[in-house]
Backbone:
């Protein structure tokens, strides 16, 4: 699915059980850059259960050590393709 957005924050949630190999995760979309500094609520919140990995191709990303989240800024759009148990992200950034 293609989303017109300026930035995205990707993070994992706590596993329902320690026996689970995969994690639930979220992708939050914002109309501003550096959303982690703003305290603003996301414009779109996407939740995914049972994810093994998120594959990000062709985008510059920032890894936030404090929260273990990934931020992608300067987006024109992002495309999210879910092929369980993986999520594939591509898009277009202004560089």
Residues:
């Amino acid at each position: 699915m293609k989303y017109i957005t300026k930035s995205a924050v990707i993070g994992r949630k706590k596993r329902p059980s320690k026996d689970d190999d995969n994690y639930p995760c979220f992708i939050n979309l914002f109309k501003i850059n550096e959303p982690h500094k703003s305290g603003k609520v996301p414009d779109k919140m996407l939740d995914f259960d049972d994810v093994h990995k998120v594959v990000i191709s062709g985008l510059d990303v920032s890894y936030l050590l404090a929260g273990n989240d990934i931020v992608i800024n300067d987006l024109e759009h992002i495309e999210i393709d879910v092929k369980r148990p993986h999520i594939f992200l591509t898009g277009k950034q202004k560089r």
Remarks:
- The chain has a mean pLDDT of 95.
- The chain has no helices and nine strands.
